[in-house]
Amino acid sequence: MIRIEKLNRVYGSGETQVRALSDVSLSISENEFVAIMGTSGSGKSTLMNVLGCLDSPSSGEYLLSGESVKDIDDEQLSKIRNEKIGFIFQTFHLLPRLTALDNVILPLRYSELDAEQARQRGEEMLAKVGLSARAHHKPFEMSGGQRQRVAIARALVNCPKVIFADEPTGNLDSKTSLEIMQLLLDLHQQGQTIVMVTHEEDIAAYAQRVIRMKDGVVIEDRPCIN
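and the corresponding structure tokens:
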């Protein structure tokens, strides 16, 4: 699913140059659930941004589903993000004036589905995350856990090859965090590939595999023993 070879990401130049990733090489298979861990500044978020096609590597190779995504233009990157990738963010990134359903179907605006087909798909995704009854509620009318479920439904609506989850429980209490992680675990067991950034050991324990980073390099890559 994902293969990177000697990936580097450098910001700035000269004395202000910062090397956020340094010769990172790894592979992630289809239907893996991988947690990327590390302290602030370790490179874990930069790696996720590159893998999610939100940022481009300075050098190295990146293959997503066998397709090189290095040196392609912004329009092509946008197409890949819309068709192959789903994102879940710590702060949900929902539009406050839209209902849950309308938030979920936003990514379908650029698909070949008509309005009715998009609505049906959105309703299916909300049902999948247990939020059918909240389809016409706006974000401020929902709890944090419900908002994250809406964000997960939105990430799933385009049937992505891989979901990238950036600190998906960071703004949630312990009970709600467990509910969200169980949902992600259920999705993985249904065949979804998930790559998750977290700094919490108990959250990383839900994954099959843990990749630890420090100063822009991978210092550990091991199976997670549950």
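(Above: one complete record from the training split.) The two ends are 24 Å apart (CA to CA).
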